[in-house]
Amino acid sequence: MSKSNILTAFIAGAAIGAVVGLLFAPDKGTETRKKINEEGKKMSDAIKNKFNEMKEKMNAVKDDMEQQREDLA
Questions:
Q1: Model's pTM, two decimal places?
Q2: Contact, 64 vs 43, CB < 8 A?
Q3: End-to-end CA distance of the chain
Q4: Secondary structure of 38-64 as H, E, C letters
Q5: Cα 50 from Cα 55, distance rounded (Å)
Q6: What is the mean pLDDT of residues 38-56?
Q7: Cβ partners under 8 Å of residue 15, min gap 6
Q8: How many other CB atoms are found less than 10 A from the CB of residue 12?
Q9: 33 neighbors 72 (Cβ within 8 angstroms)
């Protein structure tokens, strides 16, 4: 299993655990919904950041491959 898959699984597990924890917490419904919304935004931001990191890595690999191709030509 690659590091990116492990990290993605960890982030998803942590987010699910946080939501389940909030659902069983003895708060008012409005507070619980507010917390779930905040956790959802955090998870969304984490996923976007991970996507952007992967995109940057892929672009770096592409640029490196293009440079190697030019060097061989």
A1: 0.53
A2: no
A3: 36
A4: HHHHHHHHHHHHHHHHHHHHHHHHHHH
A5: 9
A6: 88
A7: 39, 42, 43, 46
A8: 13
A9: no
Mean pLDDT for all residues in the chain: 83
Burial class (CB in 10 A: 0-12, 13-18, 19+), 43: middle
pLDDT of residue 14: 83
- What is the sign of the dihedral through the CA atoms of 52, 13, 19 and 25? negative
- Residue 58: HSE in the Cβ half-sphere, 13 Å Cα cutoff: 7
pLDDT at 58: 92
Residues 24-46 have a mean pLDDT of 81
User: For the packed helices 29-72 and 3-23, what is the interaxial angle rounded to 10 degrees?
Assistant: 170
